[in-house]
Specification:
This protein is an alpha+beta fold. Helices cover 44% and strands 14% of the residues. The protein has one domain. The chain is built from two helices and three strands. A three-stranded antiparallel β-sheet has the order 1-3-2. α1 crosses α2. The chain is globular, with a radius of gyration of 12 Å.
């Protein structure tokens, strides 16, 4: 079953990619999001799936404590 992401989830993924792009300029490879950034686990999974399709071919992970890591 295919789930269509909401506009809010697309916006969250876009914001995270902007954070990643800015952080890479400072040679950072992780960023801590606020604890309530995601509505629930499904929201987090959908945003993570959107981030996995990035054009930079980065591997992006979102940990349980909302730390975003990329390499």
């Amino acid at each position: 079953m295919k789930i269509k992401p909401t506009q809010e989830q697309i916006d969250k993924a876009t914001l995270i990619m902007e954070i990643i792009n800015e952080s890479q300029e400072r040679y950072l490879s992780q960023h801590q999001l606020p604890y309530n950034y995601f509505d629930d686990d499904t929201d987090k999974q959908i945003v993570a799936a959107l981030l996995a399709r990035n054009r930079q071919r980065l591997t992006i992970r979102i940990n349980n404590d909302n730390t975003v890591e990329w390499f």
